[in-house]
Amino acid sequence: MATTSMAEPTRRDFLYIATATMGAVGAAATVWPLISQMNPDASVLALASSEVNLAPIEEGQIITIKWRGKPVFIFHRTKKTIDEARAVKSGDLPDPQPDEARVKKGHDQWLVLVGVCTHLGCVPLGHQGDYNGWFCPCHGSHYDSSGRIRKGPAPTNLEVPPYEFVSDTMIRIG
Fold first, then answer.
1. Residue 95, exposed/middle/buried by CB under 10 A (0-12, 13-18, 19+)?
2. CATH code that applies to domain 44-173
C-alpha cells in the first residue's frame, strides 16, 4: 500500500540549510572587499569636474588649468579673433568644424579646449603658430584661434571637453 505524505523536515535538512546560508554569507564577506577596491580613488573623483571662475581672465588671455590630469586651455577671445575664426571656410580645414560648434551659444568669447596635441599628445603653445592660435613645437602642428588643425601632422582638432556655464562668470568642466 503506497501512501503519499509530506515528510517532516529533519534535523539534517536544517543543518544543510544553515550551512549553505553561512557559506553564502562568508563568500559575500570575502568578495565584498575585492569588488570594493576596484572603485576609483577619492582623489580621482575629486577631479571628475572642476569649476573655474572666468571673471579674472582678461580679454585675449589664455589660461591653463588641470582637469583629470590634462591641461585645459580657457581662451577669452576678442571680437576680432571670433570674426577671424568664423571667416574660415570649413572646406579649407583638414578636420572641418565651424567655430560655432566649438563654443557654447551666447558665450562665443569663451573657448575651452583640452590642451593636448592630437598628433602625439604634446602640449601646444598658445598665441603662436601661423594662425594666431596654438603651435605644437614638437612636431609642427598649427591650430587656429578656434583650436582647429590648420597645418601639420595632427589628424584632428583640439578636443572640446564637456563643460557648462554655471553662471555668466563660472564654468564647470566635466
1. middle
2. 2.102.10.10
The grid cell for 129 is 603658430
Q: Which residues pair with 52 in a beta bridge?
A: 171
- CA distance to 11, 61, 81, 107, 151, per residue, from 87 (Å): 87, 21, 10, 18, 17
Asked if 142 is an active-site residue, the reply is no
User: Which residue is catalytic, options 119, 127, 139, 142?
Assistant: 139
Instruction: Report the pLDDT averaged over residues 57-73.
Output: 91
Q: What is the pLDDT of residues 98-121, one digit of tens each?
A: 999 999 999 999 999 999 988 888
Q: What's the predicted TM-score (pTM) here?
A: 0.71
Where does residue 91 fall: left (phi above 0), alpha (psi -120 to 50 degrees), or beta otherwise? alpha
3-state SS, 151-172, equals: ECCCCCCCCCCCEEEEECCEEE
Task: Give the separation between CA 27 and CA 145, rounded to whole angstroms.
Answer: 58
pLDDT at 71: 93
